[in-house]
Design brief:
Blueprint: H1 12-35, H2 46-53, H3 60-69, H4 73-89, H5 93-117, E1 120-121, E2 125-126, H6 131-151, H7 155-179, H8 185-223, H9 227-246
Antiparallel strand pairs: 1-2
Helix pairs in contact: 1-7, 1-8, 3-7, 4-5, 4-6, 5-6, 5-8, 6-7, 6-8, 7-8
Length: 247
């Protein structure tokens, strides 16, 4: 994951498939946002799911609490720090930037959407889309995307691998949020789709920016050779000029 085109965080083979998934996910976020705008009650889909999942007892409630912690500010910082450290240990600075950027844009998107949609739960608590679900899904998508690129997975295998990782992470955090009564099921689906929509765009932006900076640096090296090289070239020119004068 270092230098050159091979370090792309969004492998070329996966761009089309993930771009299509991102477009569909964005459409789901929009449709659900319009459907549940300014609502404060569970929908037709939410009620039966909540009846089954809400109020889980031990040991499942403990599992839900631990999972929920991963999406809390302290837990999220620890998770991002751990993944970034792993990227740097593997000498992947672009991957580390991607993790920070992707997590930030995903959480930022859910934060901006909540007051726009205006759906609430337990009083005035804004609930759509679920930021916890979006965050953990984003982390899973980024780690699996980087792994797919590093392993050189093809389009079908890579897309399936990344999507499955995001699905497992989203379902796990979504279950925890509904079990703890923090979100409606459709909130968690909206959070999952938010991550699916944001991450491919984040990866593309990071790749594009990094490639442009690399090209600019390479161009600068070509137009401004090292000092030693410039000195040698100047000396050669002076020597040639001296020989011409002697002739």
């Amino acid at each position: 994951m270092t230098g050159g085109p091979e370090s792309a965080v969004l492998p070329p083979s996966l761009r089309m498939a993930l771009g299509l998934i991102a477009s569909l996910a964005a459409l789901v976020v929009l449709v659900f946002g319009i459907t549940y705008a300014d609502d404060s009650e569970p929908g037709a889909v939410d009620a039966p799911i909540w009846a089954v999942v809400d109020g889980a007892g031990p040991p499942w409630r403990h599992v839900a609490v631990v999972t929920d912690f991963l999406g809390e500010p302290v837990g999220a910082v620890l998770v991002v720090a751990a993944v970034v450290t792993g990227c740097l240990l593997l000498r992947g600075p672009r991957a580390a930037v991607f993790v920070v950027t992707g997590a930030g844009l995903t959480v930022g998107t859910t934060t901006l959407l909540k007051p726009v949609v205006g759906r609430t739960i337990h009083g005035d608590n804004l609930s759509y889309p679920s930021g916890h679900t979006a965050f953990l899904t984003a982390i899973a998508l980024m780690v699996s995307l980087l792994a797919a690129g590093r392993l050189g997975l093809g389009r079908a295998a890579g897309t399936a691998f990344v999507f499955a990782a995001g699905l497992v992470a989203g379902a796990t955090m979504g279950w925890a949020q509904v079990a703890l009564g923090s979100h409606y099921a459709t909130d968690t689906l909206g959070g999952w789709c938010t991550a699916l929509a944001v991450l491919p765009v984040s990866a593309w932006l990071v790749d594009r920016t990094a490639d442009r900076l690399a090209d600019r640096a390479a161009s600068g090296r070509r137009t401004n050779p090292p000092t030693g090289q410039r000195t040698d070239e100047s000396a050669d020119r002076r020597a040639n000029a001296g020989r011409q004068e002697c002739h």
